Structure of Dihydroxyacetone kinase subunit L:
Amino acid sequence: MSDNAARRLSSMFYRISIAIEAGKDHLSDLDGAIGDADHGITMSLGFMAVNAELAKLNLDDTLPSEVFAVAASAFLDAVGASTGPLYATAFRRAAQALKKDECLSLADQAAIVEAMTTGIKERGKGQRGDKTMLDAWVPATEAAVNARARAAGGSEMWNAILEAAEAGANSTRSMVAARGRAARLGERSLGHMDPGAASAVIILRAMKDTFEEGEREKPGSR
């Protein structure tokens, strides 16, 4: 495990948790417009639980795939609502993707984003355009796959991923919800950003910051 990939992933989850906590009220406000006003609280609880479980691990002896597996179980145990199974499945798929080489190369980072999106789609049976978190995750994955195909550098890849996710989240304002509690509102869901898409952007930004920081810290990178 070069530069201890497990520690990088643990740091990533910690950074996600801090960012979600900081945006908790905003996320719940977004959810209040079209849902139960608890999305920020739910996400915060989920990632706090993840960090509590990761803190119990000896990261020097932990594989990167195991970090994601622990995160999946912890998130699901803490969050019983629909978001819990969605992200638990996302983390499990990411764990499976990393088992191939237990590395965090740029190709692996793209694979993590792709695997998480696949997990969310599988569990939620949704698609882009439903006004859900997939409206951020799907374009993020497309950007990751395209960047991997052209052998883009780390910053270029993650900038493309985040820009695509942000554009996708913003696009949900013009959508009528087709899934979840917001679907009950019909046309009244127009004009509001989906909170799940908004939290997806927060997660992806924290992932970007973590992986870019890891690249800067590598020997010879300066």
Summary: The chain has one domain: 5-214. The longest helix spans residues 195-217. Residues 5-214 form a domain with the Serine Threonine Protein Phosphatase 5, Tetratricopeptide repeat fold (CATH 1.25.40.340). The two ends are 21 Å apart (CA to CA).
